[in-house]
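Lab notes, practical 5.
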Amino acid sequence: MRLFQYVSRLMAGVGLLGVTGCGALLRAVQAPPAEVQQQVVGTPRAPVPEASVEVISTPRDLPAGFFFQQADLAGQPVVKLWALPEWPTPADAHAVVAALQWTGGAWGGLPDEVLTRAAALGADAVLVVPGQSAAYALHRSAAPEPTAWPEAAALLATEREKLRDFEPLGEASTTSMAAATTQVKVRRGQCYAVVGALAPDARWGAAARVMVAGRVRSDDALIGERSLAVEERYLTPEGLEMIAPYHGKVARLRSFALDVGCAWADGVVAVGLAAAGGSAEVGTGTVAWQVLSHPINEVALEKAKAAHDVAVAEARAAAAEAARAQEAQRAQAAEQRAREAEARARQAEQRAPAAAAGPGHFSLTLKNECPRTVRLFDGDKPKFGSGTYSTIGANTIQSMSGFAGRTLWIVDEQDNGMSSYTLSAGRHDVIITASCGGFARR
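Output from the prediction step:
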């Protein structure tokens, strides 16, 4: 399937917004009827009832075999939904049927016309592109996934070929996927890798489909404790790399290699797998392990230890600096809240004579001058209070209106409030500053 440049071209440089489910927070004051354009990129199927078309609001909810990425390709913004060819079966594979783009309509809402067109093309689902007025109509196969997988021994041999500097250390062993960990006896002056392969009957669990990583745990001063990437990679015909777990769920991943590192002292290292959320239960069936090693001379080992110590010191310094910056940000936010509380008190005094006449109304035009997407919260107390979360893209404008007295917050990724703006009666022209952490009147 060729790169879907249609959506990318329409999106490039256009400040359109669309976050499904957040229309109650920020919506257009006037909502013209939506005009929908479509480009068929796959094979249409027999029409289906419109009510049967499921709306998927986030790529995380796509089944295994679909990969989604928003990136730059040769300096151009690209939005790409790609279906793994012949998955789960050649006879009934996942497919992207069409791409749809619309203008107008209620902010944050999915036009009914999008679902109508998807149903007419035989699509059973629509993926709404995050932050854009665009969607993909897609077919999700109901066929079962493959069961005829290669034997673990053959997969281990293939992984060993990729690590030709290493020699096998003993025989391969097996463990259950529910406790996917093996113990490696290490000796000073030896570097280690572990290759793993799933038995044909093994299956990844739901959490592992979302994210699976290698896990190394030891008291060794050089190896230490760390997580290692376990990835499934594909290259689309247009040259865009799709990687599970970053762009989709694990599908055909059956083997992997983990670089354990070089031992500073004799000891034991636990090497295994962990799923999303730190779960050690990564699936069912069995997994085979093969330990590999090669020697390293004392001079190289000392140099590796010195470089490791420098990296650890730099990481600790960076963490301390990040903590100081976060504390300064919290203090700045507290000062901002105090100033706004004082301003609200003054406004309340000014509005007191008119209070008996009922609450006033506000209208807001909000422009994001931050170079990235900013998360917003509409409510009195983010993270702990009731309200609505949404986002506003870089260099975009949103409008909203309602009863005065509402508070709009900028929040971080942990939903902590960074800055707030109280919407008193009247018209407000407001920007999110280029620092991404505050509001300012225009």
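Observations recorded by the TA: Helices lie at 5-11, 112-120, 152-161, 206-210, 298-351. The longest strand covers residues 286-295.
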